[in-house]
Amino acid sequence: MSPSASRRPSLTEGPIARTLLLFALPIMGSTVLQSLNASVNAMWIGHFLGESALSAVSNASLIVFLLLTAVFGVSMASTILVGQSLGARNMVEAKRVVGTGVSFFVALSTLVAVLGYFNTAWMLQQLGTPADAMPYAVPYLRMVFVAMPSMYFYNFLMMTLRGAGDARTPFMFMAMSVLLDIALNPLFMFGWGPVPAMGTAGSGFATLISQSVALAALLTTLYRRKHFLRLTGHELGYLKPDPAILRALVFKGLPMGLQMIVISSSAMLMMRLVNGYGSHTTAAYGAVTQLWTYVQMPAMAIGAAVSSMAAQNVGARLWDRVHRITRAGVAYNFLLSGSLIALIYVFNRGALHLFLPSDGDALALAQHLNMIAVWSFMFFGVTFVLFGVVRSTGAVWPPLIVLTISMWLIRPPFAFALMPHIGADAIWWSFPLGSLASMLMAMAYYRWGGWQSAHMLAPPAPAPAPDAVAAEAAD
Predict the structure, then answer these.
(1) Which ranges of 391-453 would DSSP assign to H, the alpha helix?
(2) Which end of the chain is flanked by fewer CB atoms within 10 Å, N or C?
(3) CA angle 328, 332, 334 (to 5 degrees)
């Protein structure tokens, strides 16, 4: 066995609960680091460049989030395809997925960067960016578009490594990227010595440098360690896109990307409803959502982890392990998410006081809102875990349909119907209702749906029977 093969992680053997936890923790750590990076950068901009600059970056960040969300599904599809190939011990197909993915992401990110750079002002105008924020938003977003190829390719590599059973390496290089970004932000924003002050563009330039350095370091490390998925010699021919794999990346990835868009667009609608009750209610909701971001992190990390683990076991046709992975994921969701939710209930006022003054009406309203809604994220966590398992086979449309029903056809109509009677409480109660509905539908699909017969790639055509071959030869 080669050295690289001996280091190849496998998610198809060994203890499930321990492996899942050790796999999920680095994924959750990466999410925490990304949130921390965004918070620190917002602090620098808000405190030292002013409200207009912070508004500019907030508007630009919505566009960046949308562009990253658009390729999230394709990255997730590559994770599943690599996982299934390795589970089936088909190294050639795994490398074909990597080659096709590299070519796709390089071409797509270059196109996005060029089009975005020359249409930055137009996109910000369509978003309704305030006029006083435009001078800050345009240079920042243009710099981010220059960084987009590195960001897309870096994200693809991290998701591919997770599909291969390695969550630690992506976490280590994510930590490098975040620490570098945090350190470089004030340097390029405010200048020092020969480095000129670039303002908000400096924040975007820090992102460009940190992402590019982390990407180069990751690639160098993978080749130095002779990673089993690296492409060398004749394998560089796999960079020519395989039509079947490319179709799977796009058409299986699209529904997974749309799931994120459904979630974010529903959140924007709920914010619009909240805004109708005035600034105190909006401030309370804004503070609560800061806490909810962290409450959801364990469920999202576990959902990503079970998807990678299940994909390898689907490829190996180990269905009993797939179901055991599901049970372990649901249990960890209740343990980790439940612990965070319990802490919030115990320290409800203190946690919200981090974001709200103690002498305002918003703090009491935020406590009330949290008491109604925060517990329901355990339901949503179960949904994430179940969806992580079923999509590992290629069943990507049912999760999208379930989320669309719960977040658009149940939650907003319920809030609209009851707001005239119970006011803003109708919005708060719509969260538990939507979460419960999505969990019940996800459980029903997991139990009775046909997800086990789904596939990422079209199954190969059956070989003709020997008698048929002989008859054809005789003719």
Answers:
(1) 397-404, 411-422, 425-448
(2) C
(3) 120
Among residues 179, 187, 156, the alpha carbon closest in space to that of 72 is found at: 156
pTM score? 0.86
Helix H segments across 49-133? 51-87, 91-118, 120-126
Q: What's residue 361's pLDDT?
A: 79
Handedness of CA 344, 346, 351, 352 (dihedral sign): positive
Beta bridge partners of 192: 195
Residue 80 has pLDDT above 90, yes or no: yes
CA distance 28 to 305: 10
Ordered DSSP codes for 306-337: HHHHHHHHHHTT-HHHHHHHHHHHHHHHHHHH
Report the C-alpha gap between 39 and 46 in whole angstroms: 10
Please report, for the chain, how many H helices and E strands are present, in that order.
18, 0
Q: What does the pLDDT read at residue 280?
A: 81
The terminus-to-terminus CA distance of the chain in angstroms comes to 48
Tokens encoding 266? 């529903």
